[in-house]
Design goal:
Blueprint: H1 6-24, H2 30-66, H3 71-103, H4 111-121, H5 125-138, H6 144-149, H7 154-158, H8 164-180, H9 183-208, H10 211-224, H11 229-234, H12 236-261, H13 265-282, H14 285-300, H15 304-317, H16 320-336, H17 343-357, H18 366-377, H19 385-393, H20 396-421, H21 437-440
Helix pairs in contact: 1-10, 1-13, 2-8, 2-9, 2-10, 2-14, 2-15, 3-12, 3-15, 3-16, 3-17, 3-20, 4-19, 5-18, 10-13, 12-13, 12-16, 12-20, 13-14, 13-20, 14-15, 14-20, 15-20, 16-17, 16-18, 16-20, 17-18
């Protein structure tokens, strides 16, 4: 019997997880059963992916840089990467602003709904924590993100998945230094990282064997812990505006892939679909990063020299889906609470959302912290911030899942574009977990 492709296995797991979750909502103590006995398997899977994220970045980035043989090539890749990421982020924010101004979802929210949402969420721990974190970030200096990029303890940075930029900085520093000591002296260290890279990628293959079961657990838990369905329906117009913008971004990416790489867009989506489905299930670009790297390198043909830099950086600073969501959410909240935004305010949203995306943690809920910063930049009343966040809190998790898919798709698209532009886009070479199984059997 022909083996079912991985993306179909994951999709089946997602559908069964949603159906199982819906079924458990009609059973007494069903939610607690899922939380106690099903959710832990999904949590373990996400932990495993996060466990190997830092070792993979270090091994892959050191290998990629040391294989360049020329530092000027790295500068060329880095410059193209940053410029394309900034360009796609600005386009994402602009798409969101155009869409939300056309649809105007905030004008359809009743006072009754606003009152109920405020009562349910305005004083919740989650909302208050986001406001406090945003306030802390806003008080930092204009070059704080540069200061935060440089670790004072490499081991400490490696022990914290939120310090991804620090890990990238240290690894680039290490990789360039390996180049500068000469090939003979660097050979033992380079061989170590080459070997480590292969081992960690094999770990990705092994972890992915459990992906269909993990997404079942993750989605079942999301369904049973979902909020009041009536409130979700009240926010449907807003949610559809965000999703519509995200779909436009997917089309935009596929046009770029078709025009600049001459690849079939549907083939491209099929190759990265396991990473997209995991991004949807986990709501975390950082957790999905090992899978994204494996799919882009082995199944699309992007050279490790490119993917090892572009993808880790993208997981940290490239958040097209999140940036679009911020634009839509900021205008939606302003419409619902009758706070007028001028054209200049909307230009400010573009600039602030772009800057806020740099260095933001690639974890669930980071987008809402960035949203607070965006709202404050246009003079949104401080006493209404909690109410504004409460308006969208009920649908934030499902939208977070959707926008993380776009973040990951954007990273994969940019890595493919950069690889094509520097002549590093080759033929796919997929590997299986059991390629060398007979050797150790």
């Amino acid at each position: 019997m022909k083996k079912i492709a991985l993306h179909w296995q994951i999709l089946i797991g997602m559908v069964l997880g949603i159906l199982f979750g819906l079924g458990m909502t009609f059973i007494d103590n069903g939610a607690s059963f899922v939380s106690d006995w099903i959710k832990p398997f999904g949590t373990i899977f996400v932990k495993l992916l996060k466990l190997i994220a830092v070792p993979l970045i270090i091994a892959s980035l050191v290998k990629g840089i040391s294989d360049l043989k020329d530092i000027s090539k790295f500068k060329n890749i880095g410059l193209r990467t940053i410029l394309i990421y900034i360009g796609t982020t600005v386009i994402a924010i602009t798409v969101g602003l155009i869409l939300v101004n056309i649809v105007q979802p905030g004008n359809g929210i009743s006072e009754e709904t606003i009152t109920k949402l405020t009562a349910d969420y305005a004083n919740s721990e989650g909302v208050q924590a986001k406001i406090a974190e945003a306030s802390r970030q806003k008080q930092s200096g204009p070059l704080q993100f540069l200061e935060d990029m440089v670790p004072d303890n490499a081991m400490q940075a490696m022990s914290n998945n939120k310090a991804m930029l620090q890990v990238i900085f240290f690894t680039i520093f290490l990789g360039i230094s390996i180049l500068l000591v000469g090939e003979k002296k660097a050979k033992p260290l380079k061989q170590f990282f080459d070997s480590l890279n292969e081992v960690v990628l094999k770990m990705v293959d092994l972890i992915m064997l459990t992906a269909p079961y993990a997404v079942f657990a993750l989605l079942a838990n999301v369904v049973v812990s979902s909020n009041d369905p009536d409130l979700l329906l009240a926010l449907l117009k807003y949610a559809l505006t965000v999703v519509g913008g995200l779909l436009i971004l997917i089309i935009f990416y596929m046009v770029l892939i078709s025009v600049f790489t001459k690849k079939n867009p549907m083939w491209f989506l099929q190759q990265i679909s396991p990473a997209q489905l995991l991004a949807f299930s986990t709501s975390s670009s950082a957790a999905t990063l090992p899978v994204t790297m494996e799919r882009v390198e082995e199944h699309i043909g992007v050279d490790k020299e490119v993917s090892s830099f572009v993808l880790p950086v993208g997981a940290t600073i490239n958040m097209d889906g999140t940036s679009l969501y911020q634009a839509v959410a900021a205008v939606f909240i302003s419409q619902a609470l009758s706070f007028d935004l001028t054209f200049a305010d909307q230009l400010t949203i573009i600039l602030t959302a772009l800057l806020a995306s740099i260095g933001s943690a690639a974890v669930p809920g980071a987008g809402m912290v960035m949203l607070v910063i965006v709202l404050e930049s246009v003079g949104f009343p401080a006493d209404k911030l909690a109410i504004g966040l409460a308006l969208i809190f009920a649908v934030d998790r499902p939208l977070d899942m959707c926008r993380t898919v776009i973040n990951v798709t954007g990273d994969a698209t940019v890595s493919t574009l950069v690889a094509k532009s520097v002549g590093k886009l080759g033929k796919p070479h997929p590997k299986n977990w059991d390629d060398h199984y007979k050797e150790v059997k």
